[in-house]
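Readers of this paper often ask what the protein records in our data store actually look like. Such a record has a labelled line for the sequence and another for the backbone structure tokens. Nothing more is needed to write down the fold, since each code stands for a local backbone conformation. The remainder of this section carries one protein's record, kept here as part of the documentation.
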Amino acid sequence: MCFQFVGRRGIPVNYGATPETAQTFDSSRPSWTQPSYCATEVLPVCLVVSFSCRLARRERVGHHSNFLRDGLKVTTAWRLGLITYLLCIAVVGFWPVPVDQPVQGTLRSLLRYLYSYGWPTWISYALLEAAANVAMFVPFGVITAKALPDRPGWSLSFLGLLTSVCMEAGQLFFLSARFPSLLDVAANSLGFVVGLALVRVRVVKTFSACRS
């Protein structure tokens, strides 16, 4: 089965298709009114927001915020690290051209080579790009959780979402060579929540063990 994805310019986006049958869609920006766009872009954002809210409820930060603050030992270094990482994200997000442009051709050639040896065709360039967007925000979530341990989980999740939305909005309005996508917002937000959970869930478990 071949799943059609309305994605970015010049990216083969027929999941499940063979490299020979994969299509490259029109170079125009994706339409917000297309059902396939809503399914593949809006739905993941909704799922990430829902997951973030669920995480915030499970950790019940309000009942042990002092423990989180003491257990994580807030230091100026973590907050300086947060500012530094935000600057790095800003550089990547507002770079005039896609940051993967220098290696894009090499990666596509490598994927075609792997496909010829039976590599699963669902592992596409678009999937690798989404994975990179997730990975980029995992350290951001970890550093934020360390720098702001007394903040509720839902507010930190909103910070990650807002950061990604600002990046995509800047690309939409100011960078003609960049291609904003709600799927990027979902991937970034997911990475942030994963990083946040790695720190906070561990601390909450420690707190529960101390109380028992």
Residues 41-211 form one domain. The first strand starts at residue 3 and ends at 4. The chain has one domain: 41-211.
